User: Fold this.
Amino acid sequence: MAENMIGTKCVQAGYTPGNGEPRQIPIIQSTTFKYASSAEMGKLFDLEASGYFYSRLQNPTNDYVAAKIAALEGGSSAMLTSSGQAANFYAVFNIASCGDHVVSSASIYGGTYNLFAVTMKRMGVEFTFVSPDCSEEELAAAFRPNTKAVFGETIANPALTVLDIEKFAKAAHDHGVPLIIDNTFATPINCRPFQWGADIVTHSTTKYMDGHGGALGGCIVDSGKFDWTAHADKFPGLCTPDDSYHGVTYTERFGLEGAFITKCTAQLMRDFGSVQSPQNAYYLNLGLESLHLRVKRHCENAQAIAEFLQKHEKISWVRYCGLPGDDYYEMGQKYLPNGSCGVVSFGVKGGRAAAEEFMGNLKIAAIETHVADARTCCLHPASATHRQMNNEELLAAGVTADLVRLSCGIEDAADLIADLEQALAAI
Ligand SMILES: *Cc1c(COP(=O)(O)O)cnc(C)c1O
Assistant:
């Protein structure tokens, strides 16, 4: 039988009940699991047998949902984390430690930038940030002998730049390291980065995957294709025995398909413990069941709204890669031919004051520090997430004082446009 298509995977992948078993994934709300003998439990601790023993390491509910996301991305294995922040931290720290270096696109989520540039720097991991639009030469020049990974976002939050994944994958592989892609905004419905050469994919499942603003979460997916053993000197943690796990060598015991996620679970989840609760994993799975329907609607609404705004006399500019003439239109056509995401950013004529007044007039779109859920929401970064910056610093961060970020929900486009229309008319 041919492999199922993406919508079928959203509904069906990850969990197949047997006779008389629950149709919906069971919420295994249990911290621990019972065994008959200490010897059997010992095998689990040595990673010699697979099975559940403590939910910080593995939980069946979480595993069903992780398996679904692995199927959606076309990966070999996956794990859930408590948030997108934990997913990106684990994905990088699993292969880069004190003394190592990582090349990252500069156009990434602010929280990830802070994690890399401040917190992981304090842990001794150095980052070089490059423009997503840099030349191949500029990209190659960012590498050092101790570089262990390359990082970028398919569609950057909030800049809405589209990454040339093939260019970044080629540079990473030329230097013997994997490409890690945060695919939160595109979701596997619109882009599957493994098809373009990425090796590891991360998600803030808090956004479109959960999709209802209900549950924080994250996910890491491994393609299973990166050959750690071909660069064993760079990745001793995967290719040499782990003393904290009785001398297990992850690539030998779990193969290329399982080494990365098993190490990440056995070491980082064991020691840092950023687990997703089974209850949240259940909510996440409910969101995944309709991901293909919702993402399509988010994109249709965003496209209609971007076109409306582009023609409006009180709007000075619109950024959305679905608009012909947008700086990322061609890149979007290549990597996101079926749609990009529901987030549109634009400038209101009259700058900061006009943007704030306009937003205050909106009746459906709510002002929130959130994106990518069913309800339309908006944010004025200059007076919220980037509030501490003056106008010059805002410009350097690509956030102008007039910028409004609108996350289009799945309501009816005509109502959303009417709301924008009355809010603009009143300024
Ligand atoms: C929100 C977000 C994150 C962080 O995720 P949390 O679930 O809020 O921790 C990481 N990357 C991107 C692209 C995001 O939009």
The domain at 292-425 is CATH 3.90.1150.10 (Aspartate Aminotransferase, domain 1).
